[in-house]
Amino acid sequence: MACEDSENKWWHVAVTSQGKMWVLRRSYENFRMLDKQLHRCIYDRKFSGLHELPPEDNVPGNKQEVSNMMY
Predict the structure, then answer these.
(1) Which domain holds residue 49?
(2) Which pTM does this prediction carry?
């Protein structure tokens, strides 16, 4: 789920582990950084088949399209 403040779009991500649940609030740039780190250190894109998340300036305005890119 996304919510917006005056400057940023924040994504609320529900995390569940061992019967506990908490919500993280992250920006799109946080997701880009995580994506880059995961594909640099752990999982090469040729194996994951995932495209790199584009810079925020090139992200579609439609929230559903953005959600689809990040899942």
Answers:
(1) 2-70
(2) 0.67
